[in-house]
Design goal:
Elements lengths: L3 E12 L2 E6 L17 E4 L2 E4 L6 E9 L11 E9 L3 E9 L2 E4 L3 E2 L5 E11 L7 H4 L1 E10 L13 E2 L32
Parallel strand pairs: 5-11
Antiparallel strand pairs: 1-5, 2-4, 2-7, 3-4, 6-10, 6-12, 7-8, 7-9, 10-11
Length: about 190
């Protein structure tokens, strides 16, 4: 049975507007992940770009699991995918004023240069006539676990949603040591005229 190794509830409210979760050693990589207006999440190396422009405030909880966590059904929206992180230390990032960014608490995944599976759950708070668009407060739960060795690379679109098709992976090509004689490319002899 899967269990939580470590968790962190970032008590600092992220306001106007969360743009994503970034690796602390490569936060600028997050800004180069292109996301369409109708997309919720997109990953790239060292970042998870999150489109939360409709929510003025967010709270983020991080969880590191030893195996894939059980699914949660009580959240409004769920996304699953993978991300490659350089340092294994991440934080939430917003960009409310040009040139001024706000950084959330740092969460340590404990391994450098690793591909992580991640599942993100979203819940927009609301109660009766106090609709989520009036309250404009969102809860995000990020669940990380080690990706199996055959996982997708972070640059291949592979997101899954409740409303879209299944997760499709492709096996990466096996890397071979070029010094290994059995795998050297054959050289063709030159033709002499």
């Amino acid at each position: 049975m899967a269990s939580i190794v470590v968790e962190l509830l970032d008590k600092r409210e992220i306001s106007k507007y969360l743009i994503g979760i970034a690796d602390v050693e490569a936060e600028w990589d997050l800004r180069y992940i292109a996301i369409k207006k109708d997309e919720w999440i997109r990953t790239g190396d060292n970042g998870i770009r999150i489109n939360e422009g409709q929510s003025e405030r967010c709270l983020v909880k991080y969880e590191l699991w030893d195996k894939p966590p059980p699914p949660l059904d009580c959240w409004d929206r769920t996304w699953s995918g993978s991300v490659r992180l350089t340092s294994g230390l991440v934080f939430a990032l917003n960009d409310c004023h040009p040139g001024e960014a706000y950084y959330g608490a740092e969460f340590n995944l404990g391994q450098r240069d690793t591909v992580w599976q991640v599942r993100i759950h979203r819940k927009a708070l609301g109660y009766e006539e106090f609709t989520p668009d009036l309250i404009s407060f969102t809860l995000l739960k990020l669940q990380f676990w080690l990706a199996p060795p055959w996982t997708c690379d972070a640059e291949t679109p592979h997101q899954t949603h409740h409303d879209q098709g299944p997760h499709r992976c492709r096996r990466p090509a096996r890397r071979r040591d070029p010094r290994d004689r059995g795998h050297r490319p054959l050289r063709r002899p030159r033709r002499r005229h």
